[in-house]
Amino acid sequence: MRKLGSRYVLHELLGQGTTGQVWRGVRVQDDAAVAIKVLRRELADDPEIVDRFLREWDLLVELDSPGLVAVRDLVNEPGALAIVMDLVEGPDLRAHLREFGPRPAQEAVRLAIGTLWALDSVHAAGIVHRDVKPEDILIDTSVPDRPIVRLTDFGIARVISTPSRVSATGPIGTPLYMAPELGTGAPPTPAADVYSAGVVLYELLAGSPPFDSTNPADLLRAHREDDPQPIAGVPAPV
C-alpha cells in the first residue's frame, strides 16, 4: 500500500503494460474503490509518452457510454501522473479465454456485439481506438446475470481528423489484431477498429487469433494476403 499524490492510495497491482500500471486503489476523501492507471516513473521525463498519457485523459473525460470504463480524475502532481477510472469487477477477455478456452458461438457473438456498441460510441465522438484486443475488453460482472462489456485503454487512440503518425518501427498497434490497410501506412479509421473486433471474435470462437507469428511484418502480410482457417463447429451465419 502506498500513497499516490495527495488524494489516492494504491492497494493492489491489477496489471501492467509498457507505459503504465493499473492498480486497485481508494480515494482518501471517502474510501471509494477505484482503478488507477499510473505512468511508469522511468517514463515521466519522456515528453512524447507524457503527452500521449494526457491525451488519453483528454479524449475520455468527455465520453459517457455504458460500454466504456469511465474516467473520474487526473492526478498530475510532482512524482505522480495517473488516470483514475471506475473499478470494473471482472476479467478481461484474455483472462476469460485463458480460464475457459474457446467460447460457444452465442456467448462469443454477445461479447463481440458489446465491443462494437462501445466502439460505436467512440467513433460517434470522432475517435479511433487503434488497439482493440482481448486485454482491452473487460467483462463487468458486478451484476452476475447481466455481464456488461466495457472497452478500455485509449493510450494510442486519436481524433479522426488529426494526422496519423507511423513509428520508425512500423504502424502503431498490435499486429495480431491490426487491419490490413494499416500495414501499408494508411491512416486508422473506424473500419480498422471494427476489423480488430472481428479478429477478437475469431479468437473467442477458435481459441487463438487467425494468424500467428513472432514477426510483426509476417503478421501484417498475413492480414493483407491470407484467408483465415474456417472454425470447426461454428454456425455458417457467424
UniProtKB/TrEMBL annotation:
<dbReference type="GO" id="GO:0004674">
    <property type="term" value="F:protein serine/threonine kinase activity"/>
</dbReference>
<dbReference type="InterPro" id="IPR000719">
    <property type="entry name" value="Prot_kinase_dom"/>
</dbReference>
<feature type="binding site">
    <location>
        <position position="37"/>
    </location>
    <ligand>
        <name>ATP</name>
    </ligand>
</feature>
<feature type="domain" description="Protein kinase">
    <location>
        <begin position="8"/>
        <end position="238"/>
    </location>
</feature>
<dbReference type="GO" id="GO:0005524">
    <property type="term" value="F:ATP binding"/>
</dbReference>
<dbReference type="Pfam" id="PF00069">
    <property type="entry name" value="Pkinase"/>
</dbReference>
<dbReference type="InterPro" id="IPR017441">
    <property type="entry name" value="Protein_kinase_ATP_BS"/>
</dbReference>
<dbReference type="InterPro" id="IPR011009">
    <property type="entry name" value="Kinase-like_dom_sf"/>
</dbReference>
<protein>
    <recommendedName>
        <fullName>non-specific serine/threonine protein kinase</fullName>
        <ecNumber>2.7.11.1</ecNumber>
    </recommendedName>
</protein>
<keyword id="KW-0067">ATP-binding</keyword>
<keyword id="KW-0808">Transferase</keyword>
<keyword id="KW-0418">Kinase</keyword>
<keyword id="KW-0723">Serine/threonine-protein kinase</keyword>
<keyword id="KW-0547">Nucleotide-binding</keyword>
